[in-house]
Every structure is written in structure tokens, then in C-alpha cells.
Amino acid sequence: MSTAATTTAGTAGDTPVFSVGGLWKVFGPKADRVPGDPELTALGPAELRSRTGCTAAVRDVSFDVRKGEVFVVMGLSGSGKSTLVRCLTRLIEPTAGTIAIDGEDVRAMDGARLRELRRHRAAMVFQHFGLLPHRTVLDNVAYGLQIQGVGKAERRERAAEVVAKVGLEGMEQRRPAQLSGGQRQRVGLARALAVDPEVLLFDEPFSALDPLIRRDMQEEVVRLHREEGRTMVFITHDLQEALKLGDRIALMRDGRVVQLGTPEEIVGSPADDYVRAFVRDVPREQVMTVRTAMRPAASAEEADGGPAVRPDATVSEAIEAVARAGGPARVMEQGRCLGVVDSAALLDVVAGVAGMTGVAGAAAPARRREPTPTPAAVSEEPV
Ligand SMILES: Nc1ncnc2c1ncn2[C@@H]1O[C@H](COP(=O)(O)OP(=O)(O)OP(=O)(O)O)[C@@H](O)[C@H]1O
């Protein structure tokens, strides 16, 4: 889901939307003493609990959420996802560490500023989003604007726009009880969107939906993100959902982020055995891109002919192109041939014997041949 992100994520000089440093949330008696005590921080969850009665739900977590990206927080139940994301707007008060939004210190905000943060800047979409049962869809969506003091005519107009945007046109006058679970979730999404927040925070919003509706909603999020480029933080315990939606994924275990990276990095270069076990059953060809399997062109003919694929095409897409053409495909970017992929290298990725090496072509060294100068331009559009 990188289309909007790559165009809107901006340059390295951009201030991140959220910047989190050394964040801790400890529940329990005298929680404050835990983060600063090396003896206690060295303990595992069970030992910490038995020694102090405390649970470290978030342990020394640092990351940035970049403008325009979908940042997924993933982990099993109890790994600390909800606590971490609630700390971002201080729905849960952190125990230690720093949080900034657009460079502004969230921990230093007073009550009024915090309310403003939650209402205007970082809106949350919950799994159980508490729609008002006696209000219509339109009024539920307009509710956040009403709280903000927006006049009736304007809020109805804006609510109608977002209702249409999330595909609920024609249902404006229904009440929540007259909607399906998926439609209700769309109302919750529309309500968060109506206040036009800089960042949307999703707390497992789709986990109660049945699989088909869930897929629809995931596609809705992908579409909204592509159209608007809005920054999103998305909690899920579902790996497929994380891989589908995330530009980057923070994988949590026992309060720590064990790996932070793109779906391709997480699947292709798991940081440890835990992550490796987590991603073992992922169909690699649907996540890994052709960069992983690419080698330099072996000859001028190879660089000049054959089907073209984009560098961010999946291995699965390249397999189709190679199978149709009966020979290697060229990886093309802005008219330049970056390298080629052949069936053997693509198969290596599927089999998991080619990893993320960071060096194009190094995944299949035995087959590496001498590079050929790339042609200046080609006529075909990459698939
Ligand atoms: N108010 C609380 N008091 C004590 N412990 C808590 C509290 N809230 C959460 N915890 C503990 O903190 C840890 C992390 O919980 P959290 O809800 O953040 O996990 P999660 O990854 O979001 O789980 P789930 O997917 O089940 O929602 C768990 O061990 C949980 O029991």
C-alpha cells in the first residue's frame, strides 16, 4: 500500500507526525520506579510481575510515524499494541519517555490542548465505536463536528460528503440498528474522517467483522489512503491485515518492538526466531518485490527485450510476466533497465532460499553474470 505513501511521505527533512522515544507504560504499584531501574528492566514479564506486581505493557519503545504512511502496530493479544497507541494521545498516561506530534511535546500538553489533539489532530476509530443509537447516520457522522462547535448547516454538508466517501450514500437517514456490522464500521470511519484529522488511529477496527466484510473494509482503507494520503496508525493482531495495509510494521512482543520495517523487510529478513516463526506461512511471492530477485542484465539483448515490470512489482506479478514471455523480465524505472529477473531467481524467493540481501542480484550469486550497460530508454510501459 505504498502508492500514496511514496508520493506523500515526503523527504527526510520532514518532521514526523508522531515521534516516540524510550516510551514506557507500566501498570501496577509504584510503576514509576520500573523504567529507571536496570535491575527491574532486565526482568522478563513474569519475574517483573512476581517481584513488583507490575506489568510493563510498553517497554522502551521508540519510533517515528512519517507523514502520509500507514504505520501498523502488530502483535499477539497482550503484546501492548492498544496501550502503545493510546499513549500517543495520552488516553493512557505514559510512565516514561517522550512523545511529540509535529514536534510538539504531547506529555507537556494541558487538558485543553489534549482535547484539541484528540478532536482535531488524531482521531481514533475503535472496534466498538459507540454510535449513538437514536441518531441517524448523518447525525452520527456530524457528531464530532458538533462537539467542535461547527454550525449545523456546515456540519451536515461536511458529514454528507464523508458519508458518500465511505460508500454510505443513500443511507444517511438510517439509524445504526438498521445497518450491517460493516456499514456501522463505515459510519465510525466517516465520523473520524469528518473532523479531517491529520492522523487516523485505528484500534483493531475490523476484528469483529466477518472475513468478506473485513476485506471490503481493508480495501476501503487502502482506497482512502491512496486518495487522501492521510497518515494512519493501525493496530492489528492479524498478519495478513498488517502486510496488506502497512507501509511499515512495528511488530510487538511483551511490550517491546521486536522489529520495525516494511512488509518486505519483515518477511524477507526476520529480525529473530520469533519474527521468523510469525511470518513462516506468508506467501512470500505476494510480499517480496522483484528487487529481491533482480540481477544485472547479462547481455544487451536481455536489457533491451522481454517484458517490463516495475521495481515495486511483487514476485508473483513478475512470475506471471516471465511465464507469459517464456524468458526473463526487465525491471524498469523511468525508462531505465535496473536489472532483470528470471524464473530461477523468482523461484528462489518463493522457496525462501533467496533473502533480502540489500544487493540486487546477490540473492542468486551462482547465476550472476557480468552486467551490461543499461539502455537509455525503452518504449514499453512496465506492468
Ligand atoms: N489497566 C491495566 N492494568 C493492568 N494491566 C493492564 C492494563 N491494561 C493493559 N494491561 C496489560 O498490559 C499488557 C498489554 O495490554 P494491551 O491491551 O496493550 O495489549 P494488546 O496487544 O492491545 O492486546 P489485545 O490484542 O488483546 O487488545 C497486557 O499484559 C495487559 O494485561
Automatic annotation (TrEMBL):
GO molecular function list: ATP binding; ATP hydrolysis activity
A Pfam match: ABC_tran
Protein name listed in UniProt: Glycine betaine/proline transport system ATP-binding protein
PANTHER family according to UniProt: GLYCINE BETAINE/PROLINE BETAINE TRANSPORT SYSTEM ATP-BINDING PROTEIN PROV, GLYCINE BETAINE_PROLINE BETAINE TRANSPORT SYSTEM ATP-BINDING PROTEIN PROV
Keyword Cytoplasm among record annotations: no
Alphabetized InterPro entries for the sequence: AAA+_ATPase, ABC_osmolyte_uptake_ATP-bind, ABC_transporter-like_ATP-bd, ABC_transporter-like_CS, Gly-betaine_transp_ATP-bd, P-loop_NTPase
Region entry Disordered, spans: 363-383
Domain of life, per lineage: Bacteria
Family in the record: Belongs to the ABC transporter superfamily.
GO cellular component, one term: membrane
ABC transporter domain: residues covered: 43-279
Entry keyword annotation includes Secreted: no
Record keywords: ATP-binding, CBS domain, Nucleotide-binding, Transport
Biological process, per Gene Ontology: glycine betaine transport; response to osmotic stress
PROSITE patterns tied to this protein: ABC_TRANSPORTER_1 (PS00211), ABC_TRANSPORTER_2 (PS50893)
Originating species: Streptomyces griseomycini
